[in-house]
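Structure (tokenized):
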């Protein structure tokens, strides 16, 4: 992926920090340093059993460290290989606490030419001005929901990257969203053992700045919802690989029934999404009139949650 140096307006310290993370994650074009890093990653031992994360207790520094360690240990050669001749895109899987509850920040797409009314992660196409796929994910996240790169603590990535229906190779990254820009270099090394188990600050969704053209709604999907039998639907990704689609219809509809709710914000006046009349996979909001995290979003959620030990690999 040949990308020019970006003119993003980020501070030099942020660029240095992100470049360090990019090199660690193997996402920059292959320099001498990154080629050595990729060789090291490809020789890691088999994937260990992840330490279970709590679905009900808020994310803590200890939790984030555990997630980061698990993701770093689950690379494979297929996960980090890319083809410069392909068109690339990137998404951010944003973990966050909201009202002291752990979960994932998701979007409902606005009235776009493609993907209108679909549940997705923040993200989009890698532009020529993007230094890397990760830089594209951070840029798109800021453009779509107003979360600045300095608020995102990158925890890792997973794969392999799948192709979208439009033919783009989509690279997924995982990050924790801080409510305010964080000081670069602040980490668990400066905290006591007790502090690592204290809840990370919660994100106030009212502070998000949605792009009305791109995002109709942004909402917090609490972790207990990803294991709720009433929400889960068992589908086959691209007709062959089992995954869970997650019904989120009630979360979006609830905002318009109860404006006091703080787990969803909207740039539209009413809840709406469209299902494909033929119920074709990955097109529209979901099946049987539901709004679901499905298709590539559902597949990536299932893959990540398998890596973290929330789902069994057989599910």
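Design, position by position:
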């Amino acid at each position: 992926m040949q990308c020019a140096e970006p003119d993003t307006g980020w501070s030099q310290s942020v660029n240095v920090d992100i470049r360090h993370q990019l090199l660690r994650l193997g996402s920059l074009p292959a320099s001498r340093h990154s080629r050595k890093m990729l060789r090291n990653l490809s020789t890691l031992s088999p994937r260990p059993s992840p330490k279970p994360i709590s679905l009900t207790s808020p994310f803590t520094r200890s939790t984030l460290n555990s997630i980061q360690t698990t993701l770093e240990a689950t690379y494979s050669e297929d996960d980090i290989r890319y083809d410069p001749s392909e068109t690339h895109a990137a998404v951010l899987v944003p973990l966050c606490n909201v009202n002291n509850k752990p979960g994932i920040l998701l979007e409902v797409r606005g009235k776009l030419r493609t993907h209108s009314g679909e549940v997705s992660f923040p993200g989009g196409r890698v532009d020529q001005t993007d230094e890397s796929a990760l830089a594209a994910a951070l840029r798109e996240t800021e453009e779509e929901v107003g979360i600045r790169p300095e608020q995102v603590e990158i925890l890792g990535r997973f794969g392999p990257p799948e192709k979208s229906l439009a033919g783009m190779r989509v690279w997924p990254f995982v990050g924790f969203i801080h409510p305010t820009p964080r000081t670069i270099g602040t980490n668990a090394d400066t905290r006591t053992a007790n502090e690592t188990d204290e809840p990370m600050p919660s994100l106030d969704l009212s502070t998000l700045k949605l792009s009305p053209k791109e995002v109709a709604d942004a909402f917090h999907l609490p972790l207990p919802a990803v294991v709720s039998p009433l929400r889960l639907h068992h589908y086959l990704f691209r007709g062959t690989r089992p995954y869970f689609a997650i019904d989120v219809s009630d979360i979006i509809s609830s905002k318009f029934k109860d404006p006091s709710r703080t787990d969803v914000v909207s740039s539209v006046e009413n809840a709406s999404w469209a299902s494909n009349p033929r119920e074709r996979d990955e097109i529209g909001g979901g099946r049987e009139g539901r709004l679901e995290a499905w298709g590539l979003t559902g597949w990536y959620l299932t893959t990540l949650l398998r890596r973290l030990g929330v789902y069994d690999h057989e599910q």
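Reviewer-requested clarification: The chain has a mean pLDDT of 80. Residues 12-25 form the longest helix (14 residues).
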